[in-house]
Amino acid sequence: MTIASRTRIRSVALAVATIALCCAGSALAHDVAEGDRGYIATTKGVQIGAFFYLGAKHMVTGYDHLLFLMGVIFFLYRLRQVAAYVTLFAIGHSTTLILGVLFRTSVNAYLIDAIIALSVVYKAMDNVGAFQRWFGIRPDPRAAVLIFGFFHGLGLATKLQDLGLSSDGLIANLIAFNLGVETGQLLALAAILIAMGYWRRTTGFARHAVAANIVLMTAGFVLFGQQMAGYFLGVSA
Fold it and tell me: How far apart, in Å, are the Cα atoms of 110 and each of 29, 79, 230?
């Protein structure tokens, strides 16, 4: 890699970090929108359409989930491969989302979001071959996607429980929310694949793929720092 390339990578990574840190005050925790929080807290009975919409909206606007998905499909060129990884991710987060709410299993929202941020870091490092170079071994990417899917789902379950879901119609609403999450994921994934498809057809993709993953890694580290700052500030408050 040339000196000019390294300089460009450092400049872009610094820009990402600066922008993210400037937004830290409003983004310490990826949360449900205030209006949606009020709706969930007061609703009772089966509300299939509303919870489906909330699930889809949460996924489409979930920058941490989207960054992880982008990393997962970055070097996947066949739809069969994409489908396999996305299915594993869906199985993972659907399992912990539903069981987490039903069995009232939750963790600190900042800590679970910090782990989700590290999933972005992991995937970017995997994409640039860091594990092979440093440790001589690559973690099984399918197992990793499934495991991180569990953490992503637990994060959703934690946020839903914090909103005080009513037990009236809980199972139906929870399933609707999860189907909304899956639909939002497919919509977001379609947009990412279209954009990636255009980029891959350009000569710049091969030149900038490593730089893009370093930026992705930087974004993951910044998000991790934000969540840990939120955790320690919350504990000390």
Answer: 6, 34, 6
Give the span between the Cα atoms of 143 and 196, in whole angstroms: 24
Q: Letter for the amino acid at 119?
A: S
| Residue 61 CA neighbour count, 13 Å, CB half | 12
CA distances from 28 to 55, 85, 150, 183, 226 (A): 21, 28, 21, 26, 5
Residue type, 155: G
**127 near 213, Cβ under 8 Å?**
yes
Mean pLDDT to the nearest integer, 72-92: 95
Reading the block at residue 223, the tokens are 């998000």
- Tell me the per-residue pLDDT of 61-75, one tens digit each, with 9 for 90 and over: 888 999 999 999 999
Name the amino acid, one letter, at 50: A
CA distance linking residue 5 with residue 11, whole number of Å: 10
Q: How far apart are CA 171 and CA 178, in angstroms?
A: 11
pTM, entire model: 0.85
For helices 204-236 and 170-200, angle between their N-to-C axes, nearest 10 degrees: 140
Return the closest-CA partner of residue 102 out of 178, 46, 170: 170
Residue given tokens 């299993």 in the structure block: 105
- Residue predicted with more confidence, 44 or 152: 152
Computed on alpha carbons and rounded to an integer, the radius of gyration of the chain in Å comes to 18
